[in-house]
Amino acid sequence: MDALVMCGGRGTRLTADVEKPLYEIAGVPMVDAVITALEESNIERTVAVVSPHTPETARHLDSLPHIETPGEGYVEDLGYALSRVSKPVLTVAADLPLLTGEVLNAILDAYDGDSLTVCVPAALKSRLGVSADLTFDHEGQAVAPTGVNIVAPSDSETMYLAADPRLAVNVNRPTDAQIAEAWR
What we know:
This protein is an alpha/beta fold. The protein is built from seven helices and ten strands. The protein has a single domain, classed as Spore Coat Polysaccharide Biosynthesis Protein SpsA, Chain A. The strands form two sheets. Strands 1, 4, 5, 6, 7, 8, 9 and 10 form an eight-stranded mixed sheet that branches. A two-stranded antiparallel sheet has the order 2-3.
């Protein structure tokens, strides 16, 4: 299975002097930490999904195949990228600096042919002190998407729920970055 690394966003909530994927946690650009996790996993090929908002990231990742999106927003850019690859495909946000190959392999092992939405309990994000911009109810529990999914060729969808801090720490704000630094 291939992977798309979503690294084309503006990162306005982070208020950093660098493009969000290049923001360093423990001295490592977040996108590099994600790519290392993908390299340590059973993923066959990684494709960087960039936009006009992330030219430095595109240059930084010049050794990877790229898809350049119009940069109209995460959902729009994801749809654009998905229309250019075969499925199933793993999608990963570039703001998950704690991600590991082990975590990704567990997700890949859970794949059964249906699209897989990877979530964590909202209570875990709260306990860690990281932001949760979107939560929804799943079987009576508030959950938050992680930025990792498997998109299948079929329309069927399954939830993968993991109480793993390595999936819960998306760096969207300066406080999230501080928490990620403490875990790294």
